[in-house]
């Protein structure tokens, strides 16, 4: 039996309360209660007093680890964690085993996403064969496949060869694709462990200088301008990068940029613990950089927040810092961190949050039916959030298969109460709906 | 003191107490029977993930002279070379009922993780981690220097003295040197004035807050600092040869930063020449300087045993008296 939902008194984008009816996968009505029970259809009423209604969140940068590292995450567990975080679509990064550099692999990931049923899983295609940075993968085949890939990235590796980067930028124009660059000059970051600065000097950990990110961003922006292509900058992390992107936008260059929740909140001071839980690439930067990326997100220089959710096995974090893996989980803490750092500081409204976590990432990824306005006739992709809740992050209580959250023990605001994907609840009463029901 | 991980964690009183205790230990080492019963029945593990025969032997001698049982665990040829993690090695040792770990590790921060991750519950003594810290080296350098400031280097230094007013110039590969990091903070804590000198490529970005002067020109630095000690750091030749090398050639390094005969002759009369060893003669130090009467290099090695005895004693026996 299908289900209609009557949501009572949710504040749309944090503004005025309204009642919503979700029926046949779309928002059927908006305003005062207008739901009528239909024959053979269950009508569930949700009391949303005090809750926000946001469009379902869209992540441009997620590592789902399948195929290859199903011990740390699968498309099913990762997309369920995404739903728990309020997402209705995620982009699955290409650095799997095998690499998502063929139509076959992206279709497999796409199919696994449909089977999971929690969010729209949009595979990202590798730019180069095997992420090796030498020759282009079959970008056109991935674009034309059932997965309909539009975002291409060698994430984890930088496309550092300027000729390969130029060709990739040019080539994807024919199918309106975008190159999402992991900006890291490899020679400047050999063996790099953490941000290069005062803290690395003291700790004796090899430095990852800001210039290694900024120089690639600057080069790519000029390349994108030269060939008239679209460029997306992954996980921008430094004050200098914000300045460069701001300059590019003022010049009218078609560049977009993302920042991660962890770069909005944490600094390189965390490395003093030598706990690899805080080891991530690009590394946590200084307090000045944190302020700069917040300002950049507030003024629109940075277009989106993307999680860079990177699950890792316990043994890859319970070790010496240099032996530890780069990356941290983020799907379930993204919205709380944005609330804490941007909304509660008065720098973004909830409507802005919808823009940076839903509308714009959907537009960059060319994801149809996602990131749409909360309006009658639109796909019923929504998340209901209790902004007054405060919770301490408990790794073991998270939905993701991995435990490597840098926020363990931190109290963060906000709680996702329900998430709807085309009118079906994927999260209800604050917990993911069982797979059999989601996939029914 | 629960662990000895970094000289940056030592207060002045703690550091002076270690030096005073080391003098007491050294006094016992002139006897024909050098062994003290203090740590009888205790087991100390030398956990060496990086080859360093001299440091391991020094710790082994120190522990044995305190009557501790010593287990030497070297990563080469052990389960570690078969992929065992530091955590599992630590759990294994803990299960064997050890009382302290002396750890040498190629990764900066490994001793810190060992001490603070809940894997084991015994004192951890850092015998050198990556490019981070080597606290007993800095302590033995301070011990050596303290003796020279008060007397001839062989007479014990008076108790409860520090290094106030002393001027120390540290020269060489500061970027990769745990000896430099340990010494800068300990010497500062003990009241000395520190100048580090290196080519800019061998200084870390972010050195600004360090409690020392930073200079690029050795001759100017020596003239201005009027040092009581010059500490030459080991330079690895291979740092120069690879692409992206840190300096053009060994000859150029020696000309600009080596302690040659001419620079040696210009040093103030009281100034001693120190080196943590092993030396590259002809690169950072000339044979003339290494073998001169000013050189404390061999003394440093001898003092190392007394300082390590003191550190083990304070970590393991605490307030019990010295027999």
UniProtKB/TrEMBL annotation, chain B:
Which annotated residues bind L-aspartate? Answer: 82, 178, 234
Q: Please state every residue range assigned to the domain named Aspartate/ornithine carbamoyltransferase carbamoyl-P binding.
A: 2-146
Q: Which PROSITE patterns match?
A: CARBAMOYLTRANSFERASE
The Aspartate/ornithine carbamoyltransferase Asp/Orn-binding domain covers 165-315
Keyword annotations from UniProtKB, A to Z = Pyrimidine biosynthesis, Transferase
Q: Name one GO molecular function term.
A: aspartate carbamoyltransferase activity
The chemistry this enzyme catalyses reads: carbamoyl phosphate + L-aspartate = N-carbamoyl-L-aspartate + phosphate + H(+)
Kindly list the positions annotated as binding carbamoyl phosphate. 54-55, 104, 134, 137, 277-278
Q: How does it assemble?
A: Heterododecamer (2C3:3R2) of six catalytic PyrB chains organized as two trimers (C3), and six regulatory PyrI chains organized as three dimers (R2).
Family that this chain belongs to: Belongs to the aspartate/ornithine carbamoyltransferase superfamily. ATCase family.
What is the protein's name according to its record?
Aspartate carbamoyltransferase
Source taxonomy: Bacteria, Bacillati, Actinomycetota, Actinomycetes, Micrococcales
């Amino acid at each position: 039996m299908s289900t209609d939902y009557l949501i009572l008194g949710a504040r749309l984008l944090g503004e005025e309360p309204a009642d919503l009816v979700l029926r046949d996968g779309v928002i059927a009505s908006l305003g005062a209660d207008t739901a009528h029970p239909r024959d053979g259809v269950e009508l569930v009423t949700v009391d949303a007093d005090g809750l926000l209604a946001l469009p379902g969140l869209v992540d441009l940068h997620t590592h789902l680890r399948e195929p290859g590292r199903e011990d740390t995450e699968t498309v099913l567990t990762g997309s369920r964690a995404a739903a728990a975080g309020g997402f209705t679509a995620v982009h699955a990064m290409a650095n799997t085993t095998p690499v998502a550099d063929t139509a076959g692999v992206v279709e497999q990931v796409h199919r696994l996403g449909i089977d999971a049923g929690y969010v729209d899983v949009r595979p990202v295609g590798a730019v180069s064969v095997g992420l090796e940075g030498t020759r282009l993968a079959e970008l056109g085949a991935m674009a034309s496949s059932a997965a309909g890939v539009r975002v291409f990235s060698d994430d984890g590796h930088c496309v550092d060869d300027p000729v390969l980067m130029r060709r990739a930028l040019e080539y994807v124009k024919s199918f309106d694709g975008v190159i999402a660059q992991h900006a890291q000059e490899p020679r400047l970051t050999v063996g790099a462990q953490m941000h290069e600065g005062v803290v690395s000097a003291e700790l004796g950990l090899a430095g990852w200088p800001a210039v290694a990110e900024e120089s690639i961003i600057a080069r790519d922006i000029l390349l994108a301008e030269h060939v008239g292509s679209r460029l997306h900058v992954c996980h921008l992390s430094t004050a200098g990068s914000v300045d460069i992107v701001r300059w590019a936008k003022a010049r009218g260059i078609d560049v977009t940029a993302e920042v991660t929740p962890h770069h909005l909140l944490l600094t390189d001071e965390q490395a003093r613990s030598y706990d690899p839980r805080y080891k991530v690439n690009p590394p946590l930067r200084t307090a000045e950089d944190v302020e700069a990326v917040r300002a950049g997100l507030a003024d629109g220089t940075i277009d989106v927040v993307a999680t860079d959710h990177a699950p890792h096995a316990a043994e890859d974090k319970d070790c010496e810092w240099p032996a530890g893996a780069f990356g941290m989980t983020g799907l379930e803490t993204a919205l709380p961190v944005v609330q804490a750092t941007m909304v509660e500081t008065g720098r973004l409204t909830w409507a802005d949050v919808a823009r940076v976590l839903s509308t714009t990432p959907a537009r960059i990824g060319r994801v149809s039916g996602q990131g749409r306005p909360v309006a009658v006739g639109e796909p019923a992709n929504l998340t209901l959030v209790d902004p007054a809740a405060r919770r301490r992050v408990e790794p073991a209580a998270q939905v993701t298969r991995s435990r490597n959250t840098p926020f363990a023990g931190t109290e963060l605001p906000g709680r996702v109460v329900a998430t709807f994907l085309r009118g079906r609840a994927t999260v209800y009463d604050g917990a993911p709906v069982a797979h059999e029901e989601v996939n029914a | 003191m629960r662990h000895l991980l970094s000289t940056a964690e030592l207060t002045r009183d703690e550091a002076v107490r270690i030096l005073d205790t080391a003098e007491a230990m050294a006094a016992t080492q002139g006897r024909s029977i050098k062994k003290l019963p203090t740590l009888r029945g205790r087991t100390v593990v030398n956990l060496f993930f990086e080859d360093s025969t001299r440091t391991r032997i020094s710790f082994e001698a120190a522990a044995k002279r305190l009557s501790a049982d010593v287990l030497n665990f070297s990563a080469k040829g052990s389960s570690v070379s078969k992929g065992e993690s530091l955590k599992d090695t630590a759990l294994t040792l803990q299960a064997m009922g050890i009382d302290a770990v002396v750890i040498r590790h190629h990764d900066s921060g490994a001793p810190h993780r060992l001490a603070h991750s809940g894997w084991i519950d015994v004192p951890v003594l850092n015998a050198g981690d990556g490019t981070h810290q080597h606290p007993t080296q800095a302590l033995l350098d301070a011990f050596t220097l303290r003796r020279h400031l008060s007397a001839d280097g062989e007479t014990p230094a008076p108790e409860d003295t520090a290094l106030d007013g002393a001027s120390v110039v540290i020269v060489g590969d500061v970027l990769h040197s745990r000896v430099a990091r340990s010494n800068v903070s300990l010497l500062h804590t003990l009241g000395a004035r520190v100048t580090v000198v290196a080519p800019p490529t061998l200084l870390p970005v972010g050195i600004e807050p360090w409690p020392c002067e930073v200079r690029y020109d050795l001759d100017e630095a020596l003239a201005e600092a009027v040092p009581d000690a010059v500490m030459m750091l080991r330079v690895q030749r291979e740092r120069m040869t690879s692409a992206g090398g840190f300096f053009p050639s060994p000859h150029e390094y020696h000309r600009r930063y080596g302690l040659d005969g001419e620079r040696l002759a210009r040093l103030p009369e009281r100034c001693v020449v120190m080196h943590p060893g092993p030396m590259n003669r002809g690169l950072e130090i000339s044979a003339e300087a290494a073998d001169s009467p000013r050189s404390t290099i061999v003394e440093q090695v001898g003092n190392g045993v007394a300082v390590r005895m003191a550190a083990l004693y304070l970590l393991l026996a605490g307030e019990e008296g010295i027999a």
